[in-house]
């Protein structure tokens, strides 16, 4: 029998902790709870969850700071984070993106929807972690945090601009939801070194330009140490500008 996935629930509302603990345990998950970010971090030294569900507004240490601490630790680069929050504005989503949030649910929320999102994130995490750990060494750099988001909310050009501005190094994996396709962009110190599409139809600039047209799907960035011969000469800003021209011209 497969071992139960472990979920950490962090919320200063005892009623929410009890509700989620009973519900998730009833769906076969192993659950532990914490009342704020400080208690959660203390627990993480003894128990490593497969996924974290956290409130944003909490005393002592809020959900934003907890997310930053998790993404600064190589052991938790791939651990999905779901924020339960009433903060649903665009600026809050962008702030969560910088931290590395994987999903949001606004309070009040449907328990069944939460469980569906948990299953999706755990499946995605297993696929990405298995692939990346086979080929790359994960770095433990405080200033090089993982990020992720939905293309419908944060487009690929915006995600790439963020990586360029913060001089990130790692692998950006972009999933097109309809039709299914996967783009991988290898980045070092804010520059795109190479890019591949899983169908082999395009590489490098052409592959990125194609993904600029994707309107639904998801992206995930993991900080990694990469040794790849550069195949792309344009900067990320140059790629975005050239991509816009190619798309306008129907290329």
What do these coordinates show?
With 251 residues, the protein is of the alpha/beta class. The chain contains eight helices and ten strands. The chain has two domains: 6-123, Rossmann fold; 147-248, no CATH class. The protein is 38% helix and 23% strand. The strands form two sheets. Strands 2-1-3-4-5 form a five-stranded parallel beta sheet. A five-stranded antiparallel beta sheet has the order 6-10-7-8-9. The chain starts with 5 loop residues before the first strand and ends with a helix.
What order do the helices and strands follow?
A: EHEHEHEHEHEHEEEHEH
Number of helices: 8
Unreliable segments of 5+ consecutive residues:
135-144
CATH architecture of the largest domain: 3-Layer(aba) Sandwich
Strand content: 15-25%
Structural class estimated from helices and strands: alpha/beta
CATH topology of the largest domain: Rossmann fold
Keywords:
10 strands, alpha/beta, Rossmann fold, five-stranded parallel sheet, 2 domains, 38% helix, 251 residues, 8 helices
Explain the layout of strands and helices.
Blueprint: E1 6-10, H1 14-26, E2 30-34, H2 37-44, E3 51-55, H3 63-71, E4 81-85, H4 90-99, E5 103-106, H5 111-135, E6 147-150, H6 156-165, E7 170-176, E8 181-188, E9 191-197, H7 204-211, E10 217-223, H8 236-248
Parallel strand pairs: 1-2, 1-3, 3-4, 4-5
Antiparallel strand pairs: 6-10, 7-8, 7-10, 8-9
Helix pairs in contact: 2-3, 7-8
What's the gist of this structure?
By secondary structure, the protein is of the alpha/beta class. It has helices at residues 14-26, 37-44, 63-71, 90-99, 111-135, 156-165, 204-211, 236-248; strands at 6-10, 30-34, 51-55, 81-85, 103-106, 147-150, 170-176, 181-188, 191-197, 217-223. Helix 2 packs parallel to helix 3 (63-71) and helix 7 packs across helix 8.
């Amino acid at each position: 029998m497969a071992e139960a996935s472990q979920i950490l629930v962090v919320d200063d509302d005892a009623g929410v902790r009890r509700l989620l603990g009973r519900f998730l345990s009833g769906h076969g998950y192993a659950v532990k709870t914490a009342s704020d970010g400080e208690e959660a971090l203390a627990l993480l030294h003894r128990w490593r969850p497969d996924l974290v569900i956290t409130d944003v507004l909490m005393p002592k240490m809020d959900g934003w700071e907890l997310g930053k601490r998790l993404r600064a630790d190589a052991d938790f680069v791939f651990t999905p984070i779901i924020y339960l929050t009433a903060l649903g504005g665009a600026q809050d989503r962008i702030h969560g993106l910088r931290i590395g949030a994987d999903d949001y649910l606004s309070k009040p929320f449907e328990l069944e929807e939460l469980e569906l999102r948990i299953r999706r994130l755990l499946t995605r995490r297993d696929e990405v972690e298995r692939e990346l750990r086979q080929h790359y060494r994960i770095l433990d750099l405080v200033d090089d945090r993982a990020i992720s988001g939905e293309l419908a909310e944060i487009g690929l050009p915006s995600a790439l601009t963020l990586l360029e501005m913060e001089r990130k190094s790692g692998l950006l994996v972009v999933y097109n939801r309809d039709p299914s396709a996967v783009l991988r962009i290898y980045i070092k110190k804010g520059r795109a070194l190479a890019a591949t599409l899983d169908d082999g139809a395009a590489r490098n600039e052409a592959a990125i330009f194609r993904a600029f047209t994707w309107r639904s799907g998801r992206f995930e960035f993991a900080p990694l140490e990469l040794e790849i011969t550069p195949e792309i000469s344009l900067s990320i800003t140059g790629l975005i500008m050239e991509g816009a021209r190619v798309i306008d011209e129907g290329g």
